[in-house]
Amino acid sequence: MMLDRRRLLTSALTLGAMHAFPGMSLAQARPLVFATFTGSWEEAHKAVLVPAFRKANADAAIVLDPMLSVDQIAKVNAAKANPPIDVMLHDPGPALVAIGQDLVDPFPADKSAYFKDLIPEAQDAMGPAPFFQVVGLTYNPETVKTPPTSWADLWKPEFKGKVGITNLNSTLGTGWLVEIARMRGGSEANVDEGFKALEELKPNLAAVAANPGALATLFQQGQIDISPGNFNAIQILKARGVPVEFVAPKEGAIAFKTTIHIVKNSPNKELAFKLIEAALSPEVQTTLMNSPYLIVPTNTKVAMSGEIAKVLAKDTAELKKKFVFQDWKKINEQRASWIEKFNRDIKI
Amino acid sequence: MKSATTAPGDVTSFSLGLALPLGLAFAIFFVLPLAQLFYLSLHNDTAATVWGLGQYIKFLTDPFSLAVLGSTLLLGAEVTLACLVLGYPIAWLYQRSGSRVQTLIIMIVLLPLLTSVVVRTFAWIVILGRQGIINSVLQSLGLIGTPLRMIYTQGGLIAALAQVQMPLMVLPLITAIGRIDPNLSDASASLGAGSWRTFVKVMLPLSMPGIIAGCTLTYAAAITAFITQSLVGGGQMLFMPMYLYQQASTLQNWPFAAAISIIFLFAVLAIVALFSTLGRRARGYGDAR
User: Fold this and answer.
1) pLDDT (tens digit, 9 = 90+) per residue, B115-169?
2) Sign of torsion, CA A314 A320 A322 A328?
3) Distance of alpha carbon A12 from alpha carbon A17, whole angstroms
4) pLDDT level of residue A21 (50, 70, 90 thresholds)
5) How far from the centroid of its chain's Cα atoms is residue B174's Cα?
6) What is the mean pLDDT of residues B36-65?
7) Chain A neighbors of B252, CB-CB under 8 A
8) How confident is the model at residue A7 (pLDDT cuts 50, 70, 90)?
9) Fold for domain A5-131+256-304?
10) Residues of chain A whose C-beta is under 8 A from some C-beta in B?
């Protein structure tokens, strides 16, 4: 059929919009819309990235519209011809979905002043990665006296009924499962060993949280003492006085690229490019690396300092040694069946 | 008899006209998207290009999916029962109290509605947690050695959902019990019935419309309570709303998610229809004089 769901949605929405706002088809100019993530991301971008962008671009109008990756994709999908968003921010899984559904334009890397300075993993032609998210071990230093050093520590008998994980809905949960599988000889294409390991982890499991946010709150309640956790989320908890510490396991902390993309058919392509440039610039990345944001930079010109230098890596060379990257193209191929298996098998 | 039959013609034409704006909004923003959802569910592939009943067959022949549906419907039944058993005495007490106590009761019942579900749910995490209120009290009394696991269990979830949805049960009950003539129970007592017999034979049948209304509301709210289910139930306890979310958001499998919602919708409709059939029978009860 010619009438697929997206076209139907698009035409229905366009027709509706044309009726509701007759002047819309004439007035194309709208501010640049940047769909960042909610929470600490929004705060950081509002305080640092937006002012830097406006300073460099004669106070160009910009709107932050924070939402989850999946919602960004749904919104752009619903109005492909005239997308309500100009710049999207994505975790690795959703980024591939957005690219696969032909929602983003390639990043004009040859025009960019900073693209070549990024570490190679961040140089993605469809949209560079201005930041990393890092997943390592999180623990409560009041109850866990010897800091853990390896993912394998989660299986120690002393953590019986103390370990928390998330299900595979989140990037964190899926990425962690892959890492566990790798530790035992598996890979992105084969996580059977990871599921076996999960089975053995069951006596230690206190909670399988529905999302990383819910997992973090369990530390506050003393429900769990140790879990895989996101570096930035833990810093926020720590700043609020929750007893949590982050360590990069010796197998390597899992690094997820957060990529930034120009939406296809955006009416503000030039400004969208400029915003991404600002996000890649060493100035913005340096500010965002420092307290209270502690966002891991991808530009090699940024000198690591502060908490990130202390806990994660002193420089790009060490960062590349201590971080592991995952092949999300492979992961996405089988993620559905893993989620199904997790749904069925993991009951505590 | 108060069953008045005064000029219904005029009255209905008025109410139809007044209902038009909402009716239109309902058609555009609910019926239309629902039709679209149904259209989407009739496709076999993720991109929605191949027609077929594949998604429905996949769900209805998969024991796991059916178990998710079953446990969701069961959860609703358990929560509804808990709300009824705990809520009925409150509504009863309300009708037997003076106006000051009545205000207090209505405050207590309504107060939860004034805070968001998220806040109420988080409160339950604090109460049920390993170092939560219940565990620390039990431990300080020496009743338990190690903390009980209450959060992320079915029991904890039912308790939290019952509290969160309680107003939906108590308010219709208060109205229904309030309509019962207090003389009826006195008459029953003077004719020699004990208080239990009076309750079962007189009060319970007369308050049946309130019970049915309360149960329908609580049931529908409990099975669709995505936030409470995922925060107190956790990530390994899978109910229909989370299943749907997982398929739609994480896996971008919209046709299957659409089929899940249509199946869920019909399952819930069946339960609601059951309740309202019971309600109609009960109304016969209540009007019998």
Assistant:
1) 888 888 888 888 888 888 888 899 889 888 888 888 888 999 999 999 989 999 9
2) positive
3) 8
4) very low
5) 17
6) 91
7) 70, 73, 97
8) low
9) D-Maltodextrin-Binding Protein; domain 2 (3.40.190)
10) 1, 4-5, 8-9, 68, 70, 73, 97, 161, 166-169, 173, 206-211, 214, 217-218, 221-223, 335-336, 339-340, 343-344, 346-348
Quote the CA–CA distance of A25 and A116 in Å, as a whole number. 39
Domain boundaries, chain B: 52-287
Quote the tokens at residue A275: 């915003």
Inter-residue contact A121 to A257 (CB < 8 Å) = yes
How do the domains of chain A map onto residue ranges?
A: 5-131+256-304, 132-255+328-345
* B145 in A contact zone (CB under 8 Å): no
Give domain B52-287's CATH number out of 1.10.3720.10, 3.90.550.10, 2.40.160.210, 1.10.274.10. 1.10.3720.10
The verdict on B251 touching A (C-beta cutoff 8 Å) is yes
Interface membership of B38 toward A (CB under 8 Å): no
Check residue B27 and report its DSSP letter. Answer: I
Provide the greatest CA pair distance for chain A.
68
Task: State the smallest CA–CA distance between residue B237 and chain A in angstroms.
Answer: 7
**Contact at CB, B238 and A343, closer than 8 angstroms:** yes
Which site among A5, A7, A76, A337 would you substitute to test the B interface, given the most B Cβ atoms closer than 10 Å to its Cβ? A5
CA-CA distance, A172 to A174, in Å (whole number)? 6
pLDDT tens digits, one per residue of B211-258? 999 999 999 999 999 989 988 888 778 999 999 988 888 888 889 999
Contact (CB, 8 A) for A142 and A243: yes
- Which class does domain A132-255+328-345 fall in? alpha beta
